[in-house]
Design goal:
Layout: H1 2-17, H2 28-34, H3 38-74, H4 80-111, H5 114-121, H6 136-139, H7 150-153
Helix pairs in contact: 3-4
């Protein structure tokens, strides 16, 4: 009986403490920081959804190309021209993803008023700090299909 009470107590504590550490959805803290209106928030969310759709398709295509490249490396005869063409497609795809992210950020920036733009220009959470660029956790395993998706980490 005593162990049952302790198990129930521990489970109750876990259930109560977990939501305390959960982040609010839809980038609540960013909305608060920029003082976004409801219409701006809706516009940003629709822009984010459109960008996510495009980027998901591009990343799926890139992951397929990476698998093709692995298959070519695993084959008995190495075809350098095929590998080069796949590598060029991968680089082109990465460029498309980066440009789509840039277009998204600039579309969000265009929605802001002057005070919000001043807050945006302070930087910080919107973009990675330059000191983190050499950090191993950002650069490690970037060519794997199951790598972290940076788009969601930007919050918008």
């Amino acid at each position: 009986m005593r162990s049952l009470k302790s198990i129930i107590l521990v489970l109750t504590m876990l259930l109560v403490s977990t939501p305390i550490y959960a982040q609010r959805g839809d980038c609540y803290y960013m909305q608060q920081r920029l003082n976004l209106t409801d219409s701006q928030t809706e516009s940003v969310l629709s822009l984010r959804n459109a960008a996510d759709k495009d980027i998901i398709d591009l990343r799926a295509e890139q992951d397929k190309l990476i698998l093709k490249k692995k298959e070519l490396y695993g084959s008995k005869s190495l075809d350098k021209s095929a590998l080069r063409s796949i590598e060029e497609k991968i680089v082109d795809n990465q460029k498309k993803i980066r440009l789509r992210n840039f277009d998204f950020r600039m579309a969000v920036y265009d929605l802001l008023d002057d005070n919000q733009k001043a807050e945006w220009n302070k930087g910080g959470q919107f973009f990675r700090n330059k000191k983190d660029m050499g950090n191993r956790r950002f650069n490690n395993n970037m060519n794997r299909p199951n790598r972290l998706r940076n788009m969601r980490n930007l919050c918008w």
